[in-house]
Amino acid sequence: EFKRFESSVLLSENSSKFDLLNEALEKNKTVFDLTFGDGATTEHLLNSNHKVLALNNSSLSITKLDELESRGTNFVGLQGKFSELPKLIEADNLHSWVQSCDAIVVEFGPLKPHFKMGRGLDQSLNEPLDLRMSNEGPPAHALLANLELNSLTTVFSKYGSVKSSKHIGVGIIEQRYLNQYIRTTKELRDYVRKCCSEMELFQGPDGPQLIEENIKKVFLALRMFVNNELNEMKFVIKFARTVLPHNGKFIVFLQTEKEKKFFEKFLFEESNSRNDQRVWEIEDKTELEDGTWMVHVTRTLH
User: Helix-strand-coil percent breakdown of the chain, rounded to 5?
Assistant: First the structure.
C-alpha cells in the first residue's frame, strides 16, 4: 500500500533546506546523509546533535569528509555510489549504525562539487559535454556520437520528456554523416535551439521560452542517462525501505519536477511490489524558490 498525506507549497524566501530538515527531524537521531556534497548538510545535522553517516561520491570533497571524521565519534564518512553502500557498510563493520538509523537524507542530481568539475553540468557555461558525476561510463558527447536514432529518441523522451525528440535525434544523426559532432555544452544548446526554432510547435510568442525549456530537458535526459540515475534512485528507495524503522524519516531533495515524478513513481512501485504491511506515507512536498523539491516521506508499519 502507498499512502499520500501531503501538502504542496512554495517555500518562502526566508525559509531554507535546513529549516525543512529541522521540522522533519527530531533531535539526537542517527541520520544517513547519502549525498555529502560540500558537507553543508552533514555539518548542519551534526550541529543539530545528530549522529551522521555520510556517503560521498565526489573526489573534490574527500578532504572535507576527512576533516569531519577527525572531530569525533558522531560521524562516519564513506566514499562511493549509492549502490555500493551495503558493501561499504560491511567492509567497515557499521552494522550498529544501520540498526540505529532513524532517518535518511538524500539529494538526487549534481551537487556543488560536481559543478566545479568542468563537465558541462552547469549548462549555462561552455564546457565539454561530459555530464558525468564520476569517472564511470561514457560521457554524453560519446553517446551523441554513437547511439542510433531509436536509442537517442528513447533517452530524450523517457528521461527528459523532450518535445520533438525524434526530430532532434534525426538532426544529430545527419550531422554525424557530415562529420559534425556535438562536443560542448554550447554546441548542444545552439543545435537544439536551431532545431526547435524551425518547428511549428515552437513558433508564437511563447516560442523562445518553450525552446529554452526543451534545451534544459535535453541536458537533463543526457545527464540522468550517463549517470544511471534512475537505477541509483531505485536502489536508494529499496535501501531506505530495508533500513528505516517504523516512523523512520526519508527526506529527499530533487532538482526538477521530472525527477520528483520519477521518485514518486518508483516509491509507489516499490511499495506495491511487496505483499506485506509496510507502507510509505508522503507527508509533505515543498517546492523551494530555486525550483527544487523536498519530499518528506515516513516509513510506517500497519
Answer: 50, 20, 35
Residue 113: how many other CB atoms lie within 10 Å:
20
Neighbour-count burial for 114-131, b at 16+ CB within 10 Å, e otherwise: beebebbbebeeebebbb
CA torsion through residues 213, 214, 219, 224, sign: positive
The one-letter code for the residue type at 93 is N
For 208-260, the pLDDT digits (tens) are 999 999 999 999 999 999 999 999 999 999 999 999 999 999 999 999 999 99
* Sequence-distant (≥ 6) Cβ neighbours of residue 50 within 8 angstroms: 25, 27, 28, 29, 30, 31, 74
Which of 30-34, 173-177, 274-278 has the lowest average pLDDT?
Answer: 274-278
**pLDDT on residue 138:** 96
pLDDT, averaged across the chain: 89
CA dihedral in degrees (147, 152, 155, 157; nearest 10)? -170
Question: Where in 87-246 does DSSP place strands (E)?
Answer: 103-107
pLDDT range class, residue 290, cuts 50, 70, 90:
confident
User: How would you label 57-88 residue by residue, b for 16+ Cβ within 10 Å and e otherwise?
Assistant: bbeebeebbeebeeeeeebbbbbebbeebeeb
Could you list the beta-strand ranges (E) of 141-277.
249-254
